[in-house]
Every structure is written in structure tokens, then in C-alpha cells.
């Protein structure tokens, strides 16, 4: 699927923060069909059992993908998680490139629901889930603005992600 544009990263977010030493440093893209795509690799710091990514990290990635769906067409808005359900399909090794995708399943003026999935580069489903979000004014969530927090742009040559 064609990448339309790349989303910005933050400094300290666990998933997209480029300055967070324990972070995943995931990269996220606006896709041609209105979904969000992500490319990332979990590391040994994200371990549960030896050689396996902690399930909480997978849930956190699904949460990140669901939150970023909003930014595909509304990059000036912010939302908070109200509910999230995750299903784990296969053990996930670390140090292996992975991809994720998030799509709207329901959209209202102040809330939305998104379905998200994590798969390996061969397309094998590893985890998926659905999250419900409440869209809120940024000042009710944080003292920082989106421009202050999401101001890290990492250029790359990604033009397509196969889902």
C-alpha cells in the first residue's frame, strides 16, 4: 500500500520517542486508504520471557497505532484511550522488524474506535485489538502543545508498506 506522508515522532514517548533510551522508536505513516502504518523493532529491553516481547509492549503499540489513526486526517487533534482490547496470536520475538496498521471502525465527532494489528514482515498476524478513544482539547490532557511534543521528523525512503 502506498505511503502518502510520514508522521512526526516525539522525544520521550515509549513507542515513538527518539530520545527515550528504552523506547521502541517506531516510525508511522499516513497510508493511501486513510489508515496509519507503522514500522518498528522491539529490542531485548522489551522482553518478557527470554527471546519474547512482553505482551504489554504489544498492547502499547496497538494503543499507539489507534491513537495515530486520528492524525492521518486530523493532525491538530488529540485523543485519550477509553478502552482497549488486545488478542495475542503468536509469540513475538525481539530484534525482528515488524509492521502495524490501524484503521477507523467507528468515528463520531468526539470519539472513535480503531482496529489495529501487528504482523511480521511476511504478513503473519501476531496481535490485534480494538481501542476506543475520546477526542479532547490538548490543554485538558497536557501542558505541552502537539507542536512542542511531536516535533521530531526522521526522513526516510519508505514509499510503500505491504499489508
Strand count, sense and barrel status of the largest sheet are: 7 strands, antiparallel
Unreliable stretches covering 5 or more consecutive residues: none
Please state the overall shape, judged from the principal axes of the Cα atoms.
Answer: globular
The proportion of residues in beta strands is 25-35%
Biggest sheet, spatial arrangement of strands: 1-2-3-5-6-7-4
Number of E strands = 7
Q: Order of SSEs, N→C?
A: EEEHEEEEH
Classification by helices and strands: alpha+beta
Can you give the helix content as a percent range?
A: 10-25%
The top-level CATH class is Alpha Beta
Could you tell me the mean pLDDT? 95
Radius of gyration: 15 Å
Q: Enumerate how many helices there are, as a single number.
A: 2
In whole angstroms, the N-to-C terminal distance is 7 Å
Q: The CATH topology, please?
A: Thiol Ester Dehydrase, Chain A
The CATH architecture name reads: Roll
Task: Give the name of the CATH superfamily.
Answer: Hotdog Thioesterase
Number of domains: 1
Amino acid at each position: 500500500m502506498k505511503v502518502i506522508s510520514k508522521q512526526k515522532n516525539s522525544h520521550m514517548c515509549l513507542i515513538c520517542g527518539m530520545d527515550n533510551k528504552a523506547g521502541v522508536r517506531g516510525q508511522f505513516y499516513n497510508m493511501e486508504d486513510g489508515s496509519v502504518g507503522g514500522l518498528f523493532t522491539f529490542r531485548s529491553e522489551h522482553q518478557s520471557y527470554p527471546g519474547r516481547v512482553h505482551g504489554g509492549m504489544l498492547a502499547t503499540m496497538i494503543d499507539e497505532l489507534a491513537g495515530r489513526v486520528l492524525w492521518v486526517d486530523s493532525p491538530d487533534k488529540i485523543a485519550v484511550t477509553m478502552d482497549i482490547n488486545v488478542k495475542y496470536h503468536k509469540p513475538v520475538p525481539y530484534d525482528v522488524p515488524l509492521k502495524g496498521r490501524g484503521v477507523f471502525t467507528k468515528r463520531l465527532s468526539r470519539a472513535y474506535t480503531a482496529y489495529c494489528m501487528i504482523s511480521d514482515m511476511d504478513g503473519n498476524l501476531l496481535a490485534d485489538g480494538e481501542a476506543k478513544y475520546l477526542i479532547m482539547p490538548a490543554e485538558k490532557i497536557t501542558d505541552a502543545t502537539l507542536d512542542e511534543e511531536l516535533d521530531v521528523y526522521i526522513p526516510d525512503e519508505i514509499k510503500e508498506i505491504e499489508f
